Fold this sequence. Notes:
The complex is a heterodimer. Chain A has 9 helices and 10 strands. Chain A is an alpha/beta fold. In chain A, the strands form 2 sheets. Chain A has an 8-stranded parallel β-barrel with strand order 1-2-3-4-5-6-7-10. Chain A has a two-stranded antiparallel ribbon with strand order 8-9. The model of chain A has no long low-confidence stretch (mean pLDDT 94). By secondary structure, chain B is mostly helical. Chain B has 2 domains: 1-98, no CATH class; 120-254, Outer Surface Protein A, domain 3 (Alpha-Beta Complex). Chain B has helices at 3-17, 34-56, 58-64, 66-79, 94-97, 100-116, 126-130, 157-165, 198-209, 213-219, 229-243, and strands at residues 149-155, 175-187, 190-195. Chain B has a 3-stranded antiparallel beta sheet. In chain B, helix 2 packs across helix 3 (58-64) and helix 2 (34-56) packs across helix 4. Chain B is elongated. The chains are: A alpha/beta, B mainly alpha. At the A-B interface, helix 2 and helix 4 of A face helix 1 and helix 2 of B.
Amino acid sequence: MSYTATQNEFLGFGLGLRPDHYQTILAEKPSVDWFEILTENYLIPGGKPLDFLDKIRQDYPMVMHGVSMSLGSFDPIDLEYLTAVKQLIKRVQPKWISDHLCWTGIAQKNMHDLLPLPYTEEAIQHVSNKIMQAQEFLGQQILIENLSSYITYQQSQMPEWEFLSEVAHRADCLILLDVNNVYVSAMNHEFKPMDYMNAIPAKRVRQIHLAGHSNEQGCIIDTHDHPIIDPVWDLYEKTLRRMGKVSTMIERDDHIPPLSELLQELKFARKIADKVFAEQNEYA
Amino acid sequence: MNMLKQLQNDFQEYLLNDDRNIYKNIVSTERMPVDKRLNIYANAYYARLSEALSATYPTIQSYLGFDDFYKLACEYAKSHPSEFRSIRWFGDKFPTFLQNHLAEIAEIEWTMSAVFDSKNATPLSIEELANIPPESWESMQLKLHPSVRRINLNWNSIAIWQDLIQDKTPSDPIKNEFTVPWIFWRKNLDNQYCSLEAEDAWAIDAIIRGENFGTICEGLLQWNQEEDIGMRAASLLKGWTEAGLLWYNADINY
């Protein structure tokens, strides 16, 4: 099955849908172009979370973002999980779905963490096959997201950007580019973030994540619990210059502030993008 | 063993059992040696699972305090590695991991979570109940709303749990003289719970076992005179229906 001709759809600027904000969203209908939901939070039989989801999706486009597909795991693809995801897709009708370029456990265990892969030919083949299986089962192209990582395997034969690009090419999947993760990994692995961005095939980048992180004893940890820092905003601007119009969202998973605070951050993202797009239009 | 599988096995063994085989496969730098790099994953593993448990068992965490809860969560994580896709279900065996009143408070919290996101269903209404032909009552098989959960408690754990929810000093644990039956369910998306009389609990458990209404009425003879059974059964049925405990569905057998 080939998906290469899929048209990019620019959704604008979105936020992660979090339970803390359900009531405010329904009451105030804030100016957010779309919401991203965490798939696993809604793989439940019923009750309030799904009720809120059904109501909010009437007013906002949604995308689904999962953490458990474990596409890089040596275990076979989990069809029971994919079946549940497929049912949720039917309910939510997301614009697209995404997961990560990682593994989360083997031998049926789940570490509930996004663990890095060795950047090898063997891993490219393995993860590409699993992405293709997932796409075939779900009947659509999926987006895979780059991780923030703290280790490099001795066995790695190429930089992460080459690995990600090759996987996306072979699996014919799309990319969710997490700008903060590139920044975090660049600091921890001592590479230039723009070397990464320049190597990623722009035509496959469908969505961008922005987030904050923590700095702990000289190491940068991707905690998604702080506002976005200036160097990440700079990297976002440079990334947009290279990638063009890409749907962007802000992820906050911990220390969740009032919605108004995240709306301010989103406004800042819009401002940067407007500037870049205006310059690009002028140049064109 | 295949290289990818070996690396994943060694990495997982490091997280689960602190096995150091993975060390030789990780690049070390002066600024960030291997130990520091891998520690980030180990710390995150236990922090994440402890956080997930505290989300499901917030009053156990308040009762024990953050540090003791964290230690307990790490012990639980070591003995019960997750096999769930969603971290929501990770604490499923936590109540049986604990003892006495703590086990019961955990059981209450797990039950509340299960009720909260259980399957949606339209409860049987009084009108629908009234439409059931009288000649069918004896053989009809009632169904409980999918959110209904029944538990029995031997301690004053509900009182302690309620104190903790309200940020009050928790009552001292006291073992009950008798086991107290409780029922939890959801009505209009909000969780409900109450204790049950022995007769009521027996009848609800009989519905769960799949007994028909005639058999339930016979069972009620343990607590009632024969001439009162009809009235008593009708009163129970009305009470359950008003509470939203019964489920109207096409499979209802009458």
